[in-house]
Amino acid sequence: MPLRALIDGVEIIAPLLDDAAWEALRRRVADERLPVVLPCCDVEGYLRRSKSGTRHFAHKQKSNCFAKGETLEHLRAKAEIVLACREAGYSASTEVAADNWRADVLATRGNVRIAFEVQWSFLRLDEALRRQRRYSRDSVRGCWFFRRPPKPLQRDGSGAGLLEARHDLPLFHLFASADDSFLVALNEQVYPLRDFVVALLRGEVRFCAMARANTADTLRATFFELACPRCARRCHAYYVDPTQVAGCGLRFQPDSDWYSTDFAFHPALLAAFERYQTSGSGARLHLCGLQRDSSGQVVAFACPYCRAVFDRGVMEMALYGARRFWDDPFAEAFEAVIQRKTALQGAAPHWCYPADGRFCCNNP
């Protein structure tokens, strides 16, 4: 179902007409018997509305045209993209074909050309990459919206916007909501399709190879029990999940290890640990001791009985069996709100869309 037609030789993009203009055009075509030609296959067509009110064109006779088999959802998504292009200051045309590619929507401004593809049916990743290379050879930038993202790009085999980001293939997860609107999922957040396309065209979404966290952070320390590898007596240490949240909403693992001064032995958390001990909150726990270096900095937990130092290997082995308790709301824990001088960062290729415009890959 195409959105574009030539009526008496003039290009008409259906989503760009309001209801009154569409009705006036329909009457004019009928009264003056104006020719309606569909450029997608160069055959005769007519004006039509879908049951949901979407304005589009249709083929008068049977045709093998690629646009004829498009779903209503595909049609409405294309219409949203066209409107977004206009809002962002681009010209837009639909069902645009060249010698070796065909775009659902082609946005142009000056020498810049951006092809948008709505993939409502299944498409393999290698086929999407092949089509993307065709766009690139013609100096066209391609952007893809998939209802079913290719499995090789799904992190842990899941959807919900948790996709592996590739610089050579801007690809995003598209949802149809219950109210017939479209949403784009990115970094565990969702955005209206039209708003997201406007942001893309305005340069508000950018590929970043690394992620940067906010300097303000809340560290949560959860206690777990472990046995001393030397004396076999048991005590309780704590673990701090190092997962960070970037300004764009991406959750990532920083370069810093949890068993370091950035997390478990951060001065503010150690102060909170001391308050926890003196308050009597952990009276039922047998707390591990702390090992300090020559400068007085805490560098590890230690056995409170034989003073054996628990290196990272010992801690990881103990954590392996304790992780099932992390989500227990009754687990003993304490927190500290901290302010870092320097934001933590880590390797995390992603499409960055920060609300404040501060991209992860910008210099702080």
Q: How would the blueprint of this fold be written?
A:
Elements: E1 4-7, E2 10-13, H1 19-32, E3 36-38, E4 43-49, E5 55-59, H2 72-87, E6 91-97, E7 102-109, E8 112-119, H3 125-137, E9 141-146, E10 171-176, E11 182-186, E12 189-192, H4 193-201, E13 206-212, E14 216-227, E15 234-240, E16 244-245, E17 251-252, H5 267-279, E18 289-292, E19 298-302, E20 309-310, H6 312-322, E21 333-339, E22 345-352
Parallel strand pairs: 8-9, 9-10
Antiparallel strand pairs: 1-2, 1-3, 3-4, 4-5, 6-7, 7-8, 10-11, 11-12, 13-22, 14-15, 14-21, 16-17, 18-19, 19-20
Helix pairs in contact: 2-4
Output the structural class: alpha+beta
User: CATH topology of the largest domain, anyone?
Assistant: Trna Endonuclease, Chain: A, domain 1
Q: Any idea what the shape is?
A: elongated
Which architecture of the largest domain does the CATH hierarchy give at level 2?
A: 3-Layer(aba) Sandwich
Q: Strand content of the residues, in percent?
A: 25-35%
Account of the 3D structure:
With 364 residues, the chain is of the alpha+beta class. It has 3 domains: 1-68, no CATH class; 70-204, 3-Layer(aba) Sandwich (Trna Endonuclease, Chain: A, domain 1), CATH 3.40.1350; 216-339, no CATH class. It has 6 helices and 22 strands. The chain has helices spanning 19-32, 72-87, 125-137, 193-201, 267-279, 312-322; strands at 4-7, 10-13, 36-38, 43-49, 55-59, 91-97, 102-109, 112-119, 141-146, 171-176, 182-186, 189-192, 206-212, 216-227, 234-240, 244-245, 251-252, 289-292, 298-302, 309-310, 333-339, 345-352. The protein has a 7-stranded mixed β-sheet with strand order 6-7-8-9-10-11-12. Strands 2-1-3-4-5 form a 5-stranded antiparallel β-sheet. A 3-stranded antiparallel β-sheet has the order 15-14-21. The longest helix has 16 residues, at 72-87. The protein is elongated. The mean pLDDT is 89.
